[in-house]
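request received
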Amino acid sequence: MAVEERDKHSGYMTTGHVWNGIKELNTPVPRPVWLFLIGTALFSFVYWLLMPAWPVGVTYTKGLLGIDQRTTVAENLKAAALARSEWTQRIESGSFKEIQADPHLMTAVRQTGHRLFVDNCAVCHGTDAKGGKGYPNLTTTSWLWGGEPEQIAETIRVGINSAHPDTRVSQMPAVGRDQMMPGKDIPKVVRYVLGLSDPAAAKDMPAGEREAARTLFEANCAACHGEDAKGKIEMGAPDLTDRFWIYGGDQQSVLATIWDGRQGHMPTWEARLSPVERKILTLYLVDLRAKTP
Amino acid sequence: MLAQLTRDERLNALIILFVVAACGVAMMIAGQGDPLGLHGGVVLAAAVLGIFGVVAGYYAPEPSEARFSQYYDDPSKIGIILAMGWAVFGMFIGDWVAWLLVYPDLTFDAGWSSFGRIRPVHTTAVIFGFGGNALIATSFHVLQRTSGARLPDQLLPWFVLFGYNLFCLLAVTGYMMGITQSKEYAEPEWYADLWLVVVWVAYFILYLRTLVRRREPHIYVANWYYMAFILVVAILHIVNGLTLPISLGSAKSYSAFSGVQDAMTQWWYGHNAVAFFLTAGFLGMMYYYLPKRAGRPIFSYRMSIISFWGIVFFYMWAGSHHLHYTALPHWVQTLGMTFSVMLLVPSWASAGNALLTLNGAWHKVRDDATLRFMMVAAVFYGLSTFEGSFMAIRSVNSLSHYTDWTVGHVHAGALGWVALITFGSIYAVVPWLWKRERMYSAGLVEVHFWLAVAGTVIYVFAMWNSGIIQGLMWRTYNESGTLAYSFIDSLVAMRPYYAARAIGGLLFLIGAVVGCYNIWMTVRGVPRAAAEVPAASADPDDPIRQPAE
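response:
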């Protein structure tokens, strides 16, 4: 029943089949299609010969070039490490002072440190290291655990309240909630603490009340924060007289800190970053602080 | 709808619905305190709704014998309406996800609206909701026309259509509750997967039962593709869905495969979902509506043959190109790459066959936005298959992998090819199905066309740019020999492109809304021109005829 006919427009015959009015021309497959198919097939055959390609039982054809991605990547990593070792070795063996004095090494520290910091630390401390609520600003001169390169390096290695056995441990107690001090005294202490860094905040505080608050502070807080409230590195307790706040310096935040306590968690990086990487980060932070006005 | 079913079919429908309701109750009981129980409630509600519908029309008069002299098009009509509904929903969510990447706060602090949950809502709604319903609806239409045979009964098509939509509903609501198998494009959990197997087998049986009663001894190319789509999707779905639920009362299951085998199975599935769902099915669509609308014969039957077998054979091997430079052995990657390169030939042959079919009808392409939708779709099909083969080359992939380039590539295919061929086909078939002379407004089809093309182009260019910048940033080293940019640096660089992408997506979404309005006005039968409504279908080659014996 197939009746072939000639298509007037193209001049080709149809196949004679009709489906609800649709017909097909019996046009031969254009030559370029065949050439193209042969070309891609040839490419594939050659590629199979050269590279690992076909499974044979429990093994596979290895290819004439003897290339394998595992060895390639291992070699690339080795070569890259070797190229970097020119300066990484000097960082590893040099003292902080020596490295800081070497502009060539410090260029590498700045370039690599930025990438390392933003990839590992920025989620908490911000891309500019200026921190955010609950996460300290690392560009200030006010350090919980000390700002000497050795001290910073140790903080990064073991973390704070972390899972590391040598972790730095600190805690701001829940003075209000645990009733370490009569609740009615707490607002006084809050104002006193605010006045330490910003005298205007405690300006209209009666002198007697201020004295009472100072006594309370010395009795309850100075053990950790120091008599002068300038913080104690051994306790990881912050300086309360500067303008930097981890948890906010408004009345509500300070009240919350003293009432409920605080305990920040900083992960340990010993298992995740190499000694050189940690050293680079330390130098990066020291350099960043020096550059921050 | 129900008046079309015989008394026996209504009874069978009730039985099926009661079984489904019982499954829902069983899920509710077994899955107490688990999301499975909630899904049991969804299943029960769907079944009860169906039961009410059937009972209400149970005693309506039976359909007359005259139905046998007509094709059965009601499921196609409902399928197209469902497809458009899913399109608007899925594209809305997609654009939301796009804006979310520009403004991360747009989750409004809710769990269900986080990126990880609404992204699969988007992909499932557009691929399976929009694409799948459009494929089912058009396949019923094309199958009957090209076979000259009516669908074998009035119940099975509804079972397939509504069963399929229940699956989509379970999938989408599940993601928002956090239910997922964590396999891309195969996220639904085991119980939804099992249900889809039942529905899909019914679909295949329905197809075969109609096809064996065809009048023309040869099977038309469109049906080769539709059949490949149905058969292979079944195989892929079953194999990749092999999982063990942690208990019958839990939605959670674990894959039967582990490690790199699991990854390979997933991407064998994933890439063939692109091949057999998003390519073969829509080629079936193109092979019917394009020559029909153009009024031209297919350029070359012989080229159809090599394209079909080329696509079916080569695609099966290509999945491993999704796992270049991973734990997957090198030799598997080689095979994936080389077969992807060879795959370009049949892909381009298909696109070329479509475009050459338009020879002698280019004036129509100029004047008729519906045909232009299909023509541009074929062009995008050619472009994105070229891009796909190119990206499958390992060294290119080392730049493109994990970047937005992949997202751009997918959308060149999904918007440019799949959605455009679907809209073109829908604009062709709606007047035929509802027996209108033409669409309500040719002007609005034109508007939709330009919105869709502009949206696609903006989207794809934005993602090419961002993807290549991203890929380059990730591999740039400074003089010290360490990486020059952090990951966050690359995110900051992406932001303007993400905004552009979201705008492109918005244009595409607006186009779909315009399309819905146009279709709705056509269905409501308000002919723009005051021409008399023709009694028969506007398709001149579609005489109402007796199905083959």
